Amino acid sequence: MSSLKDQTIKGVYWSSAENVITVGITFVVGLVLARLLGPEEYGLIGIITIFISVFNSIVDSGFSNALIRKKEVDNLDYNTIFLTNLVLSIALFLFLYVIAPAISNFFNSAQLIPLTRVMGIVLIINAFSIIPRTVLVRVLDFKTQAKVSFISSIASGVVGIGMALTNFGIWALVGQQLSRQFLNSSLLWAWCRWRPQIEFSFTRFKDLFNFGWKLLVSGLIDTTWKEIYQVVIGKVYSPSTLGQYTRAQQFASVFSSNLTFVVQRVSFPALSQIQDDKLRLKLAYKRIIKVTMLVSFVLMLGMVGSAKQMVLVLVGEQWLPCVPYLQIICFTMMLYPLHAINLNMLQVQGRSDLFLKLEIIKKIIAIGPILLGIFINIYWMLIGSVLTGFISYWLNAAYSGPFLNYSSREQFLDILPSFGISFVMMLVVLGLSFIQISPFVLFPLQILIGALLTIGLCKLFKINEYQEIEDMIVPILTRLNLVKK
What DSSP letter does each residue of 10-76 carry, written as one string? Predict the structure, then answer.
């Protein structure tokens, strides 16, 4: 039987592989579509995504995390939650169908009626995938999920690009989303051994809901607040401005959100298994935080330095207005993995009540940037979100740290060297952007110099987390014959 460490490393490998491959494919497809379509089309899809994201949170209702955390789970648990998810998804789809005209009127776009009604089908499709994915996560089987994501991303990319080339316009984005989710759910069902039965237990539902409802409300608050930025931009400004903002978010999310997703998805089930061993749990969290934040700081601050050249090379001049949005967003999103890890501490300890309390406090604070966006401009809104991001981290650490005697000060000192090295690298890369040469030459040069500088500084100052990353990557590269033993 493999150790928890071996299971976790294997989980990190396959979960990372899934995200690298999936995000890579989706990113490339997005670049192609961004050249074929314009900011306004992406802005309209961004408006619909507001409602899809919120309703997807309701469909899940925190039950998947409740099932992952529960030590003993049987088919009655799975069947109870599967039926709950399915009924919720159908009800929310019908609700979205009915309110589509109201959404259209609010954002002054007649196109939103058919777009919203068709995109709403995603809610039902996703409901079918929640339990199969949860089953695989519980046993740390991320290899199967990686294969599913790879196939669905490739196929949906072909669908989206094909529709764009044949003049389907904005419907190419809809076709890509629907085909991806449909294939994802279908393949999960094909490769997961679990099959539903018609049975339901109010006792099991109540037990899981007692833990999950707080995560549901927390998730709803968090998702709604994230989407409120898009509501403000879409309503106060224009679909084109929203499209530029959405593009900036997508660039930043390639690294930050997906790194957060990998860390959260692997660490939660793995660390739940040692939830009663406080010393071992603290040491595990320290290692996760130090390694994760080195990666996050390097990637996000590197993107700040090379943002203009990256946008010019990858999507063209029509997207240049998104550059300042992207640079500010990167400073906010570089802390996302740290937020997730601290909130994981609360979930592992079963304190979903504190999880909910934190979300309420943080979102009250987050009202400030939204008001700045409404009454001043979008730049002040984004700058305000950076400040609230730092305050939110301090709150997360203040509540989660005492459980493991791992204070925010100790966490700050653990990640300070990584931030310092990454900040120096960002300044150098940003300085290179003033060289008057083709962005197609300058952008690769910025990546190369930034990478070499980061590696050199990590080795010079003997950053232990860099060595841990190297120890994880080198064996993989060796097996792939990319480096010699």
Answer: HHHHHHHHHHHHHHHHHHHHHHHHHHHS-HHHHHHHHHHHHHHHHHHHHHHTTHHHHHHH-SS--HH
